[in-house]
Write a structure and sequence with these properties.
By secondary structure, this protein is of the alpha+beta class. A hairpin with a 5-residue loop joins strand 4 and strand 5. Helix content is 37%, strand content 30%. The chain contains 4 helices and 5 strands, in the order βααββααββ. Strands 1-2-3-5-4 form a 5-stranded antiparallel sheet, covered by helices on one side. The protein has a single domain, classed as 2-Layer Sandwich (Heat Shock Protein 90), CATH 3.30.565.10.
Length: 134
C-alpha cells in the first residue's frame, strides 16, 4: 500500500466495514492527518460503508489519494447497485432515518468531511463521494 495511490475494497459484510475503517485509518496516517481529522474521516467512512451494506445491499469503497492546488487529500467513493434513494433532499435532512438508526448517516457524514457529493435515484443505486483535505 505504501506506493499505491488508489484502490478498491468490497463492502459485502460487517468484516468489510471493519476493513474499510482500518484502511481509511492507515491512509489518513500516511497523509499525516491530525487525530481529529483521522477520526472524522474514519467515522464518515464507517457510516457510509454501513449504508452501502445495509441500504444498498453491498457494494464497494474506492479510495484515491488526491492533490489539488498543493493540498493533499483522501477521496472515498461508496457505490452500490441497490434500490437508490427516492428523495435525496429528505435523506440529507438532520435526524431523518430510513430505519432504526440515529439519522447521523448522510448529513452527519457531510459535516465530517471537506467535500461531499451524492448521486442516487430509485432503481439505479447510490454513489457517495467524500474528500478530506489536509
Amino acid at each position: 500500500m505504501e506506493t499505491e495511490r488508489s484502490g478498491e475494497l468490497p463492502v459485502l459484510s460487517e468484516q468489510n466495514i471493519v476493513a474499510s475503517r482500518q484502511l481509511v485509518r492507515a491512509l489518513c496516517q500516511r497523509l499525516k492527518f491530525s487525530l481529529v481529522d483521522q477520526t472524522k474521516m474514519i467515522t464518515a467512512a464507517s457510516e457510509l460503508s454501513r449504508n452501502t451494506l445495509i441500504h444498498g445491499g453491498g457494494g464497494r469503497m474506492r479510495w484515491e489519494l488526491v492533490d489539488r492546488e498543493g493540498k493533499q487529500g483522501l477521496q472515498l467513493h461508496f457505490e452500490d447497485e441497490g434500490p437508490g434513494i427516492a428523495d435525496v433532499k429528505l435523506a440529507m435532512t438532520d435526524g431523518w432515518t430510513s430505519g432504526s438508526g440515529m439519522g447521523l448517516g448522510l448529513p452527519g457524514s457531510k459535516r465530517l468531511v471537506s467535500d461531499f457529493e451524492i448521486d442516487s435515484a430509485p432503481g439505479r443505486g447510490t454513489r457517495v463521494s467524500i474528500t478530506k483535505w489536509k
